[in-house]
Structures are given as C-alpha cells and as structure tokens.
Specification:
It is built from 7 helices and no strands. With 106 residues, it is mainly α.
C-alpha cells in the first residue's frame, strides 16, 4: 500500500469528500484526485502536514505506513509545519542543534 492508498483509506474512514478535503488542505479538487489516484507520486511537507491534520492521522503513517495511523498531538504537527517553512538554513541548523541537545534527534 502506498501513501495514495492510505490517503484514500483515511478520507473514506472520516467520511470526507475529496472536494471538502481539498478545500481544507488548500489545494484544488483535481490535485486531490491526482494524489489519490497516484498520478502525483510526491507531496511537499506543508501539504503532508495539512492532510494529516485534516484527516487526524500521523504524517509518518500517511507517507510510509509506519507508526500508528492516529495523529500526533496537534502542537507537534504545528511545530513540524513551522520548521518546514523556514527558508534560512542557519535557522534550521540552530533548531536541529537544539533538538540534538535535548536528545530528541540524532
């Protein structure tokens, strides 16, 4: 099973239409259709986090099928989204250094 299949599965379990999910995530309905069909094989980090939040699933589960399908706490996803938006490499490096110092990142 690939991420496209897990997306379809999670959306169906939540009872959300493709159109409604597309609006929630901020993409077009055709993009959502292409994601589910596998026409689009890759997804950027920001859209991945928006999808996982909207569906209440873990981004790791959605992409790799690993870990539980249940979502991490919303704050964790918000932090990951904020880090993914950083364009300054020095800022990202500083955050990575801090996470390593806390022992939560190798």
């Amino acid at each position: 099973m690939n991420w496209n299949d897990r997306l379809k599965e999670a959306r169906a379990k939540r009872g959300i239409t493709k159109s409604d999910l597309a609006k929630t995530v901020g993409v077009s309905a055709p993009t959502m259709t292409d994601w589910e069909s596998g026409e689009i094989k890759r997804i950027d980090g920001e859209n991945l986090l928006r999808l996982s939040d909207a569906l209440g699933v873990s981004p790791h589960w959605l992409i790799w099928g690993k870990q539980s399908a249940t979502s991490a706490d919303p704050q964790s996803n918000e932090i990951a989204l904020a880090i993914s938006r950083l364009t300054d490499t020095a800022q990202r490096d500083a955050i990575v250094t801090q996470l390593k110092a806390f022992g939560v990142l190798q």
